[in-house]
Amino acid sequence: MIHRRAVPLIVLLICLPLGGGHCWAQPDDPPESLEVPDEIVVATRDVPPFAMQNGDGDWEGISIDLMRQIKSDLEEASKHKIQLRFESYPLDEMLDAVAAGRVDVAVAAITVNAERERRMDFTHAFFQSGLGIAVGSSQRRAAWQGIIEAVLSPTFLRILAGLMFAMLISAIAVYFFERKHHDGDFEYGIVRGIGAGLWWAAVTLTTVGYGDKVPKTLPGRMIGLIWMFSGLFIIASFTAAVTSALTVNQLRSRVAGPGDLSRVKVATVAGSTSAGYLRSRHIRFRSHESVELALQSLAEGRCDAVVYDAPILRHLVFQAEAGDQFVLPVTFERQSYAFALPSGSPLREPINQSLLHWTSSSSWEDTLQSYLGDDVE
């Protein structure tokens, strides 16, 4: 039996032929470099200020700049150069390309929602936004302009004509019975007599009742009695009709928020979250391939409002500087922008780490300020 004190000596003798130092714990292997392809195919689309092409044909914007920063981190982690190849798609085709794995990542102003999450993966959100409404300058008017338009509208003029016709019938009737009364107030010629009858009908209808003209005959007084009671209903109906005409005119010509969209012609971008919002609320709309085309339809008067992502609408309307459109100061249906990747993409985790690093830095605030100015939310 080997003595216990001899065991360390035996182990040492065994290790010596193997090179002595190899018996000690080996240092950890150096960390493996990240496996990233030499070229990353990036799907994008023209949605200023998040993604747009400059005069040289190069892509830039909030999302594009962020992707370039992430590429730098991926190059450092993978220890090799990486090329970004941008491919432009319409929105629907871009999402289909991501879901089918034909591109590595989609970078634009892509809203995260449950329907898209079932088809693809998303990074962490890098921007919080919401939907906005762009309207034509004709919607931005003073209250007195709306009142004048309502007063001159065909509906109001028809109401006024009906009231005048009722007064004329009453005036002719009272003149017919009172014209032969020698002590009466209507014993003039037909023109002056009917004119006096109109004056009497007006002051009686409005309950002013000056008393300067009063029917003297029994038939005349009967007509006066009927006219006074009828006046209560005529005035009430006239007031209601005028109020309705003013209200309907304002509803047709003014959009103050999302609650007014069901009453006007709306345009948006096909396949967008704004289209989904309108559809879920049973609001009829016309789809366009891009937000620029939707705004063009607004300028041409083919729609009353364009619903789309608020920061994009503000940027495009501001850049146009035409003054014929503006974005309402209301944001609704909050949403988050993120990058989209094919399901199970190995790039998701390294992109997330880099994205969180950059979006929490001061340089990210500078990027947002340079593109959005005072519209940074």
UniProtKB/TrEMBL annotation:
It holds the Pfam family Ion_trans_2. Residues 39-360 form the Ionotropic glutamate receptor C-terminal domain. One of its GO terms (cellular component) is membrane. Keywords: Glycoprotein, Ion channel, Ion transport, Membrane, Receptor, Signal, Transmembrane, Transmembrane helix, Transport. It comes from the Bacteria. It is a multi-pass membrane protein. The lineage of its organism: Bacteria, Pseudomonadati, Planctomycetota, Planctomycetia, Pirellulales. The chain crosses the membrane at residues 156-177, 189-210, 222-246. The keyword ATP-binding does not apply. This is ABC transporter glutamine-binding protein GlnH.
